[in-house]
Amino acid sequence: MTADQHVLNHRERIIQGKENWWFLGAGGVARLSDRHLASGGALAPRAERQLRAQGLYVVAPRRSYSLTVLTTTACNLGCGYCFQNVAQDEGSGSRPPRIAQARLTSSRITSVLEFARRQMAAAELEKLHIMLFGGEPLLNPRGCRELLARAADYGLTDAAMTSNLTLLTPEIARELADLGLRSVQVTFDGAQPDHDLIRIRRSGGGTYDAIVANLAAASAAAPEIVWSLRVNVSHRNVEGIDALLEQLAGAVDPACCRVYFARVGDVGIGYLNGARHDEDLVARFCRWQRRAVDLGFIATRPRAHTPCATCQAGVGRYGAVVNADGTLSSCWETAGKPDWQVGTVTGGYRPAEQISGRWIACEDTYQYGDERRAVVSFHDAVDADLLDYLHATGRL
Amino acid sequence: MAESEISPEEITSEETAEQEELDSPEVVAHSLDEEALPEDCGINVHL
Q1: Which of A60, A80, A337, B38 matches a 20 to 30 Å C-alpha distance to A46?
Q2: Which of residues 4-23 of A touch B (CB under 8 A)?
Q3: What is the rounded CA–CA span in Å between residue A255 and residue A160?
Q4: With an 8 Å Cβ cutoff, is A258 touching chain B?
Q5: pLDDT for res B12
Q6: How far is B19 from chain A (nearest CA, A)?
Q7: What are the backbone angles phi and psi of residue A99, rounded to the nearest 5°?
Q8: Residue A164, min C-alpha distance to chain B (Å)
Q9: Partner-chain residue, chosen from B39, B45, B47, that has the shortest CB–CB distance to A136
């Protein structure tokens, strides 16, 4: 990834379903038969013309600036795989050393929003989207509230949050929804017994019951919020994921939740995952995502390779990641890590020649172990199966 | 123009268009209104 790439290039995908091929473009999804493909699997010229004519290559214009803000770098959990750990915990296992502590203050919020105003003016964008991030953002609830409240004067249209949910109350959910919060991502680490061994408090103890109870109460208090339930998958919890889905469907309203599954990667701190991107894992992912659809969770349609607005569109053109201390990074992965700073909200981005080696994109630092080709094949197989199922059940 | 007066060229053209329609990929979903946002770009957030 280079720092000077300015165009949001989508990459089309052609993946093989059971009875047909699927074309995934920036403008939508189409079913293909063998006659639409040339030798080698590429799209036949006539089929490509037809897809272009139907708008499948059309990229929606960028309308909003995406600002990710760490309201604090602190976290009350001690998950061993967290990308913000700087090493494994050699002691109890629940207190891995983390990135340096920082907390968003009122004066820093002023700097952050003025920075956003300048960036938005440069890109001629009038709408602002904010992602509340951490650490655990709700360790600084005042910072979350103040940031969203004051962002209303800067074009805020909606906000998202990535939270572990252990601190979320119905009152905070209602307050943040009134300030524009519309989506929240929370992670589960398997069925309760597995989750409670992995997603642990720094003070010790599991979190499953608290997260589920808080999710149920908050979703009732703020029905406009869509909840994205990320399920981390590793050899530690793979056998319990089927049970997890049933547990979740019985505890929360699936109609306001998406579920998606992700194999946990290693960001370079030695977190091993014995679950490989092989046929067995493909079969499991396919089974889980079909079951999630059957249980009534919101289905997320697979799509073309879509660039991240923050890290894959040039230096801060369509978005930025801001640490609580006002430093900028190219991506959420490197936020709060001193060797990866690319500027500050007061001074702006450093010259391109100084930051080109620090400009990384989503997942650039992950070490998957498998060959990259195996990872791509894995995702293609899983996505094709979901498209097959959504189509067969009239949900596309 | 009466139906019988349609020229062979026009018939061929219509048949070709019809065949193209039959051969065309079936678009099952459009996504022009979607915008890629950081939280749904496939990131591997574990918090």
Answers
A1: A60
A2: 8, 23
A3: 18
A4: no
A5: 62
A6: 12
A7: -60, 160
A8: 6
A9: B47
A187 inside 8 A of chain B by CB: yes
pTM, full prediction: 0.88
Specify whether the CB–CB gap between A244 and A190 falls below 8 A. Answer: yes
Q: List, for chain B, all residue ranges whose pLDDT scores fall below the cut of 70.
A: 1-22, 32-47
Peptide bond into A27 cis (omega under 30): no
User: A8-59, pLDDT tens digit by residue?
Assistant: 567 899 999 999 999 999 899 999 999 999 988 899 999 999 999 999 998 8
- The distance in angstroms from the start CA to the end CA of chain B is 71
How much is the CA Rg of chain B, to the nearest whole Å? 23
Which residues in chain A land under pLDDT 50?
1-7, 366
List of chain B residues whose C-beta atoms are within 8 Å of the C-beta of residue A135:
47
Residue A74 has a pLDDT of: 96
Strand pairing class (A181-188; A13-16)? unpaired
Q: If 0-12 CB within 10 Å is exposed, 13-18 middle and 19+ buried, where does residue A307 land?
A: buried
Calculate the CA dihedral of residues A87, A90, A96, A102 and round it to 10 degrees.
-70
Closest C-alpha to A132, from A174, A176, A101: A176
| Residues of chain A positioned with their CB less than 8 A from the CB of B41 | 306-309, 362
The distance of B4 to chain A (nearest Cα, Å) reads 32
Looking at residue B32, what is its pLDDT? 55
- Partner residue opposite A332 with nearest CB, options B29, B40, B43: B43
